[in-house]
Design a protein that fits this description.
The protein is about 30% helix and about 25% strand. It is of the alpha+beta class and about 450 residues long. Strand 4 and strand 5 form a beta hairpin. The radius of gyration is 23 Å and the shape is elongated. It starts with a helix and ends with a helix.
Length: about 450
Amino acid sequence: MSYGVLNTKMREMQDEIIASIQQNMRIESVKGEPQPEAPYGAGPKAALEDLLELGRKLGFKTGHADNRVGWVEYGEGEEMVGVLGHVDVVPAGEGWKYPAFGAEIHDGVLWGRGCLDDKGPTVGAIYALKAIRDLNLPIDRRIRVLFGSDEECGSSCAKYYVENGYELPVIGFTPDAEFPAIFCEKGISNFTCGAPVLRKGNIDVVSLEGGTASNVVMPSCRLVVNGDIQVAETEGITVTKKDGQTIVEAQGVSAHGSTPHLGVNAGIRLLEAVKENDFGGEFQELMDFILDKIGTETNGEKLGVYYADEETGETTVNLGIVSYDKEKLSFTLDVRYPKNASAKVVDDTIVNAVNSYTLDVTKKSNLNLLYVPKDSELVTKLVRVYEAETGDKREPVAIGGGTYAKEFPNMVAFGPVFPGEPDVIHQPNECVEVEKLMRALEITAAAMYELAKK
């Protein structure tokens, strides 16, 4: 089928679409302290309200689940198609060419946090709803564009939506991954580990700080000690002596936590550089665990959780955040595993490994593996739409990234990134060519239309 009329309508609205995306991107919607009627802080609430106002301005029915998930809806019928995006973003981090929340366009490229993950696709889906309505295209199912505000920190918003009995779609997708369609997402276990600092040790460590989020490869890390220590002169390491202190800083290469092999972990790099020192105390326990059980590998072999599956890939492990001061230490592990792994076995193995170093797991969360058969209505329609719009015939894929699709039944991830495009999500200089973003939104609109037809 040709979607020419739908594509044309989307292009007619391009300037308006991009302006609305930029407006939302300029809201720094990183999770903050809860406030009245803002459960995830002022930023996510402002971004949520911005899209609700857009929906109202465009003449759609809108609603929200206690300021956690908002929605814009069109159509009639008992069944509902869901397009699930999110307005929260990971912290900016360092190393941006243009302001992270400036939403600037240079040479046809839109720069800024959220342009791909996930404000661009989510705002675009609202305009796709407008295109379907304005063209009066025949649909059998209502379409609801939903947008959560805590996806990056565990998807508690979507859980709240489900657990409190809000209407679930019968079919749908989240525009928060890649084309042609994601039929499988690995299982994910997140661990926060820590211990009180009770022993002084042999070296007076003031602090160790690194990382921005558990699902981001640590881009930088900083160690401060009183006195002198040995530091290996290696790539990415700088040493400063000041006021009787030694300050060691490591620079890494950030990447998404689902693909840690594409990055360089600054925390690992720093601890490798200072490992010849006899720190003693809890700092030594922290360092020994990280270097002995993780090190530079990213597939979980040293932790005893390596699994590989031809269809769905292999285990990944990411050290996301590390923190140490004179009172406590903590670190996070993001572990993702293919369909031949058992979540319970993975979790028990890691808990035992952590406990063997007199450290504790203080918090744990899980996202189950997602698997929708390739021959299902959902996957078949999405792949067919992608092929019709691009002429590119591809099989659906399995990924390590965990998306909102896991929160709702019969939902998969679909777009907005095209095959072969560089991975810039969660990294400094997140950006997208405006032309490619518009092509992705055209495909999104066609997919919404197809899923709304029984």
